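thought: fold this chain, then report.
action: predict
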Amino acid sequence: MLLVSTLAFAQNAQEIVRQSEQTMRGQSSVGEMEMIIVRPSWERTISFKSWTMGTDYSMTLVTAPAREDGNTFLKRENELWQYDPAINRMFKLPPSMMSQGWMGSDFSNDDIIKETSLAEDYTHSILGAETLDGHTAWKIELTPKANAAVVWGKMIVWIEQQDYLQLKAEYYDEEDYLIKTETASNIQTMDGRRIPTHFVIVPAEEEGNETIMNIKTIDFNINIDQSFFSQQNMKSLR
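observation:
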């Protein structure tokens, strides 16, 4: 009886995480985002547009600043690519690059390209419930599956019970050291969905560093075809 209850509880944890991912992705989506990279002596802003279809396809196009306009990132099933228009070259990204900062930010390549699925690549355990800024949330620990090509040694996420919104995430390395913390806020209704639109990542050991991302617009369940996510389209996308 105890085994059945434990398995059911674990399954519920996975379903909570899956629903959270689905809330932010939909079956497909297109959105415009702004990222502000803050360092002790400088800051810069990057604007980009992102398309997704399911969990296997995503395309990200940098639109500003001008010197990086046209840089494009593609996930197509298990392949990850970058196109640099300045040198007119296409690069295949190895899994080892997924942990590196995207465009010099505190968001990893994996965060933006969405190579990892939190629901499928991790096992899940509910640690309890907490209140964050007035929102009751499940606190869930994620540990990577043995054969999953994931960036983190462990994650702890807080997912709102009302609409399955991920409000906070802590990212740990394989030695269980906290690397960075992400918080989500400014919940708005966009295209009929209640979602957070303001995200902040703060590294644990880099004082004065943070990266802020704001969702400007997003549309869900758009009409988009698998053929859109191609290397050829990376070069012509605007």
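thought: worth noting. The helical segments are 2-25, 109-113, 231-236.
final: tokens above.
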